[in-house]
Design brief:
Largest sheet: 7 strands, mixed
Structural class: alpha/beta
CATH architecture: 3-Layer(aba) Sandwich
Strand order of the largest sheet: 3-2-1-4-5-10-9
Length: 239
């Protein structure tokens, strides 16, 4: 089966500066990125080895590289990795694959793992988190953004972006319709993420729901769904 993200590498493009931000990538960059960057500023260590999992076309990996992290980017999409390597490959190591390809890093582990809008597209999340745990140092930090379940509910009420969900009140599985690309999506609550990661010896540090700002919506009128944050950002520390 082909990877649905391969056809979307051009849609998201690469971002080296503010002039490269488009309607398609603005919400990630201007709403999701700042929360994770603030978390890293507080809990991270510059020059640390960092895994950017689900790196896509590499723009966030490049941002992290410019902030003096030693970054490795991993993504399952051939085309996303090709785009990332073409734009940023001289500075950053990019690897095509998923967590089953991470065993090479078990001896020289990462001290930070980041991920933006990846894990809601993973069905067997416990296996993925287990594999990430094996390449993260003790006392290492893990921070990621996923869809906010309340945002999904709002989208389902207005028939926007999502379809074929199992429930309107407690949505868990359905389809994310992105420009005709129908991608399976798996929605989890903060309690579910906390429980899975607690069993892997992580303690929660942050929980954030960054809103769309009025300034953002004036410049990027992506939808009328402004009552709920698109993102749920969670940060953890490995014991």
């Amino acid at each position: 089966m082909s990877n649905p993200w391969d056809s979307l590498s051009l849609k998201y493009g690469t971002v080296k500066n503010d002039s490269d931000i488009t309607l398609d990538n603005a919400d990630n960059i201007l709403i999701a990125w700042p929360v994770i960057l603030d978390f890293l500023k507080q809990y991270g260590r510059k020059n640390a080895r960092l895994l950017e999992y689900g790196c896509g076309t590499g723009s966030f990996a490049y941002k992290l590289h410019n902030l003096a992290y030693d970054v490795t980017g991993v993504d399952s999409s051939d085309e996303m990795i090709k785009t990332a390597k073409s734009a940023f490959g001289k500075e950053i190591h990019f690897l095509k694959g998923d967590t089953s390809n991470l065993s090479q890093f078990e001896k020289e582990k990462f001290s930070i793992v980041t991920s933006i809008m990846t894990f809601q597209f993973v069905e067997d999340i416990e296996k993925v988190f287990h594999n990430i745990t094996k390449v993260l140092q003790s006392e290492g930090i893990f921070v990621f953004a996923v869809f906010n379940p309340e945002f999904i509910k709002e989208c389902l009420r207005t028939k926007t972006f999502f379809e074929n969900f199992d429930s309107f009140e407690k949505p868990q599985t359905g389809i994310f319709n992105l420009n005709g690309n129908k991608i399976p999506v798996f929605i989890r609550t903060v309690q579910e993420y906390n429980e899975i990661l607690k069993n892997l010896n992580f303690e929660p540090i942050i929980e954030s729901y960054p809103p769309f700002t009025e300034e953002f919506l004036r410049k990027y009128p992506i939808s009328n769904l402004i009552n709920e944050s698109e993102y749920m950002t969670l940060g953890y520390k490995k014991k």
